[in-house]
Amino acid sequence: MQSNNIFVVIFLVKFPVGLMKESPIVLDSQITSGIIKEQIIMQPPFYGFREIALDKSSTGNLRLANDNPIITIPDGQIQGTKEQTIMQTTFYAFRGIPFAKPPVGDLRFAPPKKNDPWIGILNATADRDRCPQINSGTVVGSEDCLHLSVCTPDYKGNFPVMVEIYGGSFETGTSNFNSYRPDYLLAKDVVYVALNYRIGILGFLSTGDMVCPGNNGLKYQILALKWVKKYIKYFGGDPNRVTVFGQSAGGVSIAYLVQSRLAKGLFHRGIMQSGSSLCAAGLTLEAPKRAFEIGELLEIKTTNSSVLVENYRQVKVTDLLSVQTIYTTKFFLSDILTRPLPFGPVQEHHHPEAVFSGNSYEQYLKGDFQRIPLMIGSTSNEAGPLIQSLRRY
Ligand SMILES: *[C@@H]1O[C@H](CO)[C@@H](O)[C@H](O)[C@H]1NC(C)=O
Ligand SMILES: *[C@@H]1O[C@H](CO)[C@@H](O)[C@H](O)[C@H]1NC(C)=O
């Protein structure tokens, strides 16, 4: 029986990217000797190959000399990192895996689209950008933010999966590794997924018609959950035991996913922490009116939604977010107690791709939702940071 012998980089080859398309990833299959040659990550146009040991007990997953794992999903190959929990158990992290086409150009404010496969090995060893948002007064993040991260104790396992949806008032939030380290979950043999979704005006603009029906942020969450359903098995996760969990806007999102036909069958349990579709902050009213009002602040003067959205597509992200902040501040101060959100989930008009239409409480009363085990609660000291900021007024 071959052991998992480890070999090091032996040569690098310069290849035009186009050529790589036709070249198989595995160059040589001297499997009898336990060695195959594997492409390694380089910046195009350079591609390299190194010899690595084949772990014969594996199902085709390979490990490199430095123990950094490479796995293959239908979109391509992914290299992650080997990490340790604070309890000293080992796990593998794959950060910044795309699940959607970057929502730029014509795709800004459009329903999400699945990403294309990639050539070569995806570098998933570090966090990628968060979605555009204001952080301490400056715009951070990038529009190319539709990525998710997976942490797994063992990518050959069949573990239950927990998918985290971040909170942040549908205006801020990140799935970055160091913000919500999953150490305690991983120690319980769970595969952990953290997804990004678009927020603020970029995720929740709605014109109330087919031009931009709204809820794109939630639609990205649904696309990411479809990814989990299809691909999590390659990371050692069981696609039939998926729990979604999240706090604040994350909890609100989960309530809507439980109500939505579009998310049916994509998860099997939910944990809603301090958020529901029935709370004031969970529903944005009069969204089309806001879309046009903000348009005016951007000097887009029209009553036609196609013209409005077409013009919105030309505005720089920094300008969009500045105007969003001005508007949100005004809005927040005008209704400080119930604090509805200016950009959040909306009741879409009736159409087949709507996440939800009509009143949530009626939908729940009618029993029109997924009957799955749900834990609903609140995070202690939830409003702490808010009380601090209210002292200013
Ligand atoms: C992967 O990306 C990280 C972060 O950008 C970078 O530091 C690292 O060098 C990259 N690794 C390779 C092999 O390109
Ligand atoms: C809105 O503008 C689009 C694009 O210019 C045009 O095709 C459409 O007819 C207009 N709709 C209305 C209701 O005026």
TrEMBL record:
Swiss-Prot/TrEMBL keywords: Disulfide bond, Glycoprotein, Hydrolase, Serine esterase, Signal
EC assignment: 3.1.1.-
Residues covered by the Carboxylesterase type B domain: 68-387
EC top class named in words: hydrolase
Pfam family, one: COesterase
Assigned protein family: Belongs to the type-B carboxylesterase/lipase family.
Listed name of the protein: Carboxylic ester hydrolase
Source species of the chain: Ceutorhynchus assimilis
